[in-house]
Amino acid sequence: MNKTVIEKITHIVGEKYIKSSTAQLLAYSYDATANFQRLPDLVISPGNAEEIAEVIKVCNEYKMSIIPRGSGTNLAAGTVPYDGGVVILFNRMDQILNFDKENLTITVQPGIISENLCTFVEAHGLFYPPDPSSMRISTIGGNVSENSGGLRGLKYGVTKDYVKGLQVVLPNGDILETGGKLAKDVAGYDLTSLFVGAEGTLGVVTAITLKLIPLPQYKMTSIAYFESLEDAARTVSSIIANKIIPVTLEFLDKKTISAVEQYMKIGLSTDVEAMLLLEQDGEMHQVEQDVKEMVRIAEENGALFTQIAKDAQEAEQIKTARRVALSALAKLKPTVILEDATVPRSELAKMVMRINDISEKYNVNIATFGHAGDGNLHPTCLTDLRDEEEMHRVEAAFAEIFEAALSLGGTITGEHGVGEMKAPYLEWKIGPIGINVMKNIKQTFDPNHIMNPGKVFAKETKKRVVVHGGN
Amino acid sequence: MNKTVIEKITHIVGEKYIKSSTAQLLAYSYDATANFQRLPDLVISPGNAEEIAEVIKVCNEYKMSIIPRGSGTNLAAGTVPYDGGVVILFNRMDQILNFDKENLTITVQPGIISENLCTFVEAHGLFYPPDPSSMRISTIGGNVSENSGGLRGLKYGVTKDYVKGLQVVLPNGDILETGGKLAKDVAGYDLTSLFVGAEGTLGVVTAITLKLIPLPQYKMTSIAYFESLEDAARTVSSIIANKIIPVTLEFLDKKTISAVEQYMKIGLSTDVEAMLLLEQDGEMHQVEQDVKEMVRIAEENGALFTQIAKDAQEAEQIKTARRVALSALAKLKPTVILEDATVPRSELAKMVMRINDISEKYNVNIATFGHAGDGNLHPTCLTDLRDEEEMHRVEAAFAEIFEAALSLGGTITGEHGVGEMKAPYLEWKIGPIGINVMKNIKQTFDPNHIMNPGKVFAKETKKRVVVHGGN
């Protein structure tokens, strides 16, 4: 990296907040995605939006890349450097700027840890629902840039449903303010939504106003085991068809259940094909009615065994079983690749069976769990990066999984983002016209392509896989 | 209009579906906004997206304007021609394309009447919440392009919260598909949200996939009268502070109540300063609890008189009182100008008082009603277009009302859109950087500025008004 650039950036941010030794840079050369690693040139911790604006101006002048990074929990290589450049950290920008109980909003800096925000508002009887599995370490800024989902998405939606306003430093150094605390605002284009999920490719988010809702008073959790995937999937469809929208409706397949039980020893039944985790929250009377009805529906659809958690502790244990799924699977093999192919929920059973068929076809080990109510599955491949031959089969299997999801009316990514990893597949979902529109938008914001390059847009789209077997 | 253009368009759409006589064009020279009128060159009723794409290509070639138009209920001159051009009607594109009870979505053509869609899904136990006051005649396409609100926005949000996917004909004739039925999808930028509320300036929406939710089983309505605006506003804040989010929380001031009572003779108290209409829906037990609690809060905050509707008929009568507010006021004077300045709900009382002060200062007659829970007010000026001197005062008063809303952290338009009418004020809200970003987006989609010109972007921003008296 140009010495002048380093000097200019150091002058803006202060030497204390700059990392440039190889050992330091290494720590920011990868994220939670397997198989992607490249060194940045510099890692900085600016103190405010104005400093970021100055840094961006310098980077724009010298055509240096900017990689905004929260806690690096990204699963699509969205925060891995592409061609060196400056990683921006938000560890000094983690404050609550405004908490407005009357208007039910909170304005925060991007570096605040997601769970800390949730805990803070819950202490005031309020609720910020998006709960990505990484929430204990992920930042709200990262959640916004990836439009993160979570276990409560079915009832409460995802991050974008709660972002009401943003402050964004644009690639030209302008500081844009969008939206605000208002319940309704139609003054111009919805720029807020454009930045949510843009994966840092259009600007650097420096402040976020979020909508809050009243904290539900009561919740109740249950599980149901099934001897067939179809029974579990039919239960999911039937719950929705009965006009119940539970807060959580999660699915674990046999392999995932076994891995979790092996890891946690909490007494899960491991001789079943599928498990559903069902939770409702809200007013007590309604919650009890919904959970009983969901259990009845599960039994009607052939559940082998159902259980309503008798207290908060038991409920927490059941939910932890789901939350640790990835960690439990990660114990089994050196490399774990977690995907998030998503289908309309009516296609859930078909999709799980397709994944199993593809897993067999390519002789790769795939366990599947995920947000059944959202049709958002996490086929998780247990493999080993060092086994090059197997890695080729893994890649081919995932390409076919994306193709299968698309053929069922689904998408290549439900909640993880496109990043660098799925960029070559994006055109499969949105088509050449969609890609063209997105490229034009990117171009107008960031003509020098300094903002998180290599993400979302691929140099080349992957050749499509021919999939046999229709919808 | 160029004869060749007319011939080409006639060839695409068919002579039967073209209107071009002056009498016919006159009917499409205005919308529901007072004081805006200009003739189009042609009015067409295409049959599908492909025809629209062909028409747009011709218009792009000859630099002719396109004005997409639903039922013309727009209140910001969003559907009034600007420099002639082709008005596109959707009366032949009003079909339900797909109703998916398992995934809780419905895909429709833009021309379907909003209320017809609601009635259809409600017959299946499902619910599409956005309910603009014009829903009996407005189209879903218009609602999407304006991101319409309504009376149920506080609890259920606005149109954009339900749009999951779009088909849009772009100004270059490309047909773009965005989103879909999926509960979660983060494949690329959120193009869907960019078109919602874009007022037809970026493309022509030709199909819409909407999210549905289960129909609430029960609802309960009540009213509360107050002798002061502050008491009413404090009630609103206190309801939210007590963690109750009612479906409807509407406000009518003294002038509006009188006009409605005069119009409907339903026994409203006319010797009070303000009335709140409170409604909750959901599970019976919860609804009863919430409504009783809201009534208690109203009484605690000095309500003179409260009443819970004893049955559906009485509830309907109360709600009709709110729904007819505009029609009732319209009876009083030849011209009615309805605005939608919006503030954070905590600033409601201040805003109503500012409106009253401004009304006195300019000696204009303004009645105010609106969505109190959303901070979305409808100051409504009763005037006469033919009185030029008064119209100048009306314009000055509204400019000061916008300025007052902004100084309280609000916006110039909560749910009506910018259109041509409020375009000169947009920069007051989003600033020169916001305008610049929006202009760049417009430019990249529509370099020839054929899509609904004169809307959103003004030739010149109004000079700002100096407002005395702070927040």
TrEMBL record, chains A, B:
Against Pfam families, the record matches this protein to: FAD-oxidase_C, FAD_binding_4
Q: Which UniProt keywords apply?
A: FAD, Flavoprotein, Oxidoreductase
Instruction: Check the record and name the SUPFAM superfamilies matching this protein.
Output: FAD-binding/transporter-associated domain-like, FAD-linked oxidases, C-terminal domain
UniProt-listed PROSITE patterns: FAD_PCMH
Instruction: Tell me yes or no: is Chaperone among this UniProt entry's keywords.
Output: no
Report domain FAD-binding PCMH-type positions. 36-215
Q: Which domain of life is it from?
A: Bacteria
- Co-factor(s): FAD
Instruction: Please state what the protein is called.
Output: FAD-linked oxidase C-terminal domain-containing protein
